[in-house]
Amino acid sequence: MSTPAPPVIELATYPGLDPRIVLLRAGEEVDAAFVRTQRFDLLIDTLSTPDDCRTALALLGSRFPDLGTRPLTIVNSHMDWDHFWGNAALAGRGPIIAHAAARDRLAAPAARQTLAQKQAEDPRFAGVTLVAPEITFDGGLQLDGGDLTIELIHTPGHTPDHLAVWIPEIRTCLAVDAVEMPIPEVWSRTPGDLHQLRASLARIQALDAAFVVTAHGRSCDPALVAGNIAYFDALEQRVAALATTAEAPAGHDLSGEGEALPLSPEGTGLRLEDLVSLPSGMDADTRAFYEGFHATNLAATLAARRQAPGAA
């Protein structure tokens, strides 16, 4: 199997987005974000490798020649590999902040297992070391940038440690992975994580943001939040309508007890494309990726149905 080409790093924005925000785009892999305030610069996520992060910082330095002389604060939105594996590039540059649950994730064996797997598959990750955040907090945290207020909002559900960033003066939410085009993924197949993700989506919607910037899917459209909420609402309603195996089409188990889940049977209305509109140009690999998200979301919804009062 050939090694995929590394992503091209570039600076990006969206029409109307405040110029104090610059996106650090690593191809189709992920977007990080840079915010310039009067008092300090803020980097939300560090991309997938130290080399990617250094390239992004060099591009920012061309845009902002005083970058190296101003205070820098780094926020790790969550401990998924494509969001924080670039931390080593920022040693000594400024404090790295994350939610307290990030330390638990980083200490878990899965963190090093993922790194070993990625390093075995792709030499691009050979220089990655896991660098922990230096400051963690429970609940939320507010940073005073002078002209801009930076509110770090705990938005669990996609992961236990997930943070979104709200900047009220410019009505902009950097939602990271809590909102995604076409759908976000719940952390596990358990009702608790599903409830948390849906609550986080509701919290972001309540901000009434003018811009909701995602880390994947290249979207800043606040309507995407309502679309993600509608997807989970429709999934819940269709699972409730087909709540028992007896009501399902022959041969399809909707109980959620087995590994096989009804992602494609005709007549169930539970396929991904039954619930959301997929971009016409979506390639097969990307579609399969989001069908995996849908499988997890469906399993969690089935589990929640089994726990609901009065469920069959």
Automatic annotation (TrEMBL):
Keywords: Hydrolase
Alphabetized CDD domains for the sequence: metallo-hydrolase-like_MBL-fold
Coiled coil (UniProt feature): none
TM regions (residue ranges): none
Domain Metallo-beta-lactamase: from-to ranges: 29-216
Example GO biological process: antibiotic catabolic process
Record-linked SUPFAM superfamilies: Metallo-hydrolase/oxidoreductase (SSF56281)
Assigned protein family: Belongs to the metallo-beta-lactamase superfamily. Class-B beta-lactamase family.
PANTHER family: ACYL-COENZYME A THIOESTERASE MBLAC2, METALLO-BETA-LACTAMASE DOMAIN-CONTAINING
Annotated protein name in UniProt: MBL fold metallo-hydrolase
Organism (species): Xaviernesmea rhizosphaerae
